[in-house]
Design brief:
The chain has about 525 residues and is α+β, with helices and mostly antiparallel strands. The protein contains 17 helices and 22 strands. Helix 10 runs antiparallel to helix 12 and helix 11 runs antiparallel to helix 13.
């Protein structure tokens, strides 16, 4: 810890990096914040109790939370049940239902210490039995939770040991730096082991600040405040009402502008369109946060012509990054450099921005044997205006280098199902708190060199894979950052993805809504939100 603090004071480590790795080493977050001279957010000054918040979004089928893949479906769960950890808007992960964790030097033994005096909304105490039960649900082959894919390769049910009612140990099969971040996945809420029987709505018992009063699928959900919530003084709201206004975002925007609702949930759709509509409305507050989300231009390197790196580099040089960001994302977000590590990631190593250079691209195409130009087919999903804008800008600008891009639109569900099959496509990638997660998913190969399920490009680079494994096993932040500088360089110069910009996420609300914050994952976190009374 002394080394971490001295590196921070010497300017070798940012405050976010210091806090992230102080937490990883088991230092309480409040102590770390104090050492780094960061204020720890307290209760809202001047907060008013007793108001009702109305939210327009979606209320899809629920059921077993561990099966959930949908952010909209998890928004209700999140107010009623909670997570072991919490990744904040600065992309720093903290203990939440956990008091702290302690990790071994080899990153394979994680001791978890639970907070005490926490109770479910039916009065039963929260203990390690609930955590073990929840993890076993995640890992069950019958339930097929997303968490099984996320944790199953490093944690088996036999690797869980109960020490006492508020302490347990996880013995991992391999080093795992990302465990705290993975515990904040939408499907990782903690269940009451005494009452849960497969459908949360049949026994909606969580440790969260609200309880479910009424739920009508695709129509309405009413939540009411818990007065025995474990965080003193919270929540401020007395009620939250979710209203399902369908998938048409314009209906939600109209409801917000008219005052029918106080806030709109944009987690099921790109928020940039709503931003463009609402940015000049003085009655609306748009709260934004940078994310690691991106629309990734991806090329299959096992197919002609993309096996030739000169062709890949040529197309990437045709991305006019500022123009694409301006037209597709309202000039918001950060510029990308064709590697899947963004400025919000703690491992990020800053690189000089790649310039738009169609002349150099044309020269590379000629070197690759395409002096008369090249016909290529770009497949995108229908109903994604930002992706279509990105594709059209690229189509126009790449023509100057000799690329003749033929655009093909397919239904969104078809694109998602076949996303690894298209020679050239643009795939929306979600936010991941750590760069090592995104790189592992995007470039994973097994011991035989076969690509993983998210490796859309089929790109494999032995030096890259070796460095990535090394980074995942490296606890020291400065050593990991040095490794990431090399990883970014390799992917930028040899990889098969183009990332012109990183997206922002937004929450749109009436101005009377106070203490609301956008989250990189589009999570609605409402335990500290309050409303100014209407005049």
């Amino acid at each position: 810890m002394d080394t971490l603090l001295s590196n921070h004071k010497a300017g070798k480590m940012s405050r976010r990096e210091f806090l992230r790795f102080a937490a990883l080493l088991g230092l309480a977050s409040t102590t770390a914040s104090y050492l780094a001279h960061w204020a720890v957010p307290g209760q809202a000054m001047g907060a008013v109790y007793g108001q009702k918040l109305r939210i327009a979004g979606l209320l899809p089928e629920t059921g077993h939370p561990a099966k959930n893949l949908s952010i909209p479906a998890s928004q209700v769960f999140r107010q009623v049940a909670e997570y072991l950890t919490y990744t904040d808007i600065n992309n720093i992960t903290h203990p939440f239902l956990l008091d702290r964790w302690v990790v071994s030097d080899d990153l394979q033994t994680w001791s978890l210490y639970l907070k005490k005096n926490i109770f479910f909304n039916n009065g039963q105490a929260f203990t390690t039995d609930d955590v073990i039960f929840s993890i076993e649900q995640w890992l069950s082959p019958v339930i097929n939770s997303p968490m099984k894919s996320i944790l199953g390769d490093c944690l088996a049910p036999s690797g869980i040991e109960k020490i006492d009612s508020h302490q347990m140990v996880l013995y991992l099969r391999r080093p795992e730096l990302e465990l705290p971040e993975k515990l904040f996945h939408p499907s990782a809420i903690i269940l009451n082991h005494r009452t849960f029987e497969g459908d949360f709505m049949q026994a909606p018992h969580g440790t969260g600040p609200f309880r479910i009063e009424k739920f009508e699928k695709n129509i309405r959900c009413l939540l009411k405040r818990r007065y025995d919530y474990w965080q003193p003084g919270l929540p401020f709201l007395s009620e939250i009402e979710f209203l399902d206004l369908g998938r048409n975002v314009s209906s939600r925007v109209s409801a917000l502008k008219s005052g029918t609702v106080d806030l709109i949930d944009l987690s099921d759709t790109g928020s940039s369109d709503a931003y463009g509509t609402l940015k000049n409305d003085r009655s609306i507050r748009l709260t934004s946060v940078p994310t690691a989300r991106a629309n990734v231009l991806r090329m299959r390197v096992d197919r002609d012509p993309w096996y030739d790196n000169r062709v890949r580099q040529a197309l990437k040089l045709c991305q006019h990054r500022d123009k694409i960001r301006y037209l597709a994302h309202n000039e918001q977000g950060a510029i990308g450099n064709d590697f899947q590590v963004c400025p919000t990631h703690p491992e990020y190593c800053e690189k000089k921005t790649i310039k738009f250079d169609p002349r150099r691209a044309k020269s590379l195409l000629e070197e690759a044997g395409y002096g008369s130009g090249l016909d290529i087919h770009l497949t995108i999903a229908k109903g994604k205006p930002d992706i279509k804008t990105q594709a059209l800008v690229l189509q126009s600008d790449a023509a100057r280098a000799g690329f003749r891009i033929h655009l093909q639109e397919v239904p969104a569900h078809e694109y998602h199902r076949n996303r690894t099959k298209f020679d050239l496509g643009i795939t929306p990638w979600a936010h991941y708190p750590l760069g090592v997660t995104a790189l592992t998913l995007a470039s994973a190969v097994d011991e035989q060199g076969r690509p993983g399920p998210w490796n859309e490009t089929r790109w494999a680079n032995e030096d890259f894979s070796q460095l990535l494994r090394q980074a995942g096993n490296t606890l020291n932040v400065l050593e990991r950052k040095a490794i990431f500088c090399k990883l970014e360089e390799i992917q930028m110069n040899q990889g098969a993805v183009g990332i012109p910009y990183w997206q922002n996420s937004y929450i749109a609300s009436r101005k009377r809504v106070q203490n609301i914050q956008a989250h990189p994952n589009d999570y609605l976190l409402l335990n500290k939100v309050w409303l100014k009374p209407e005049k």
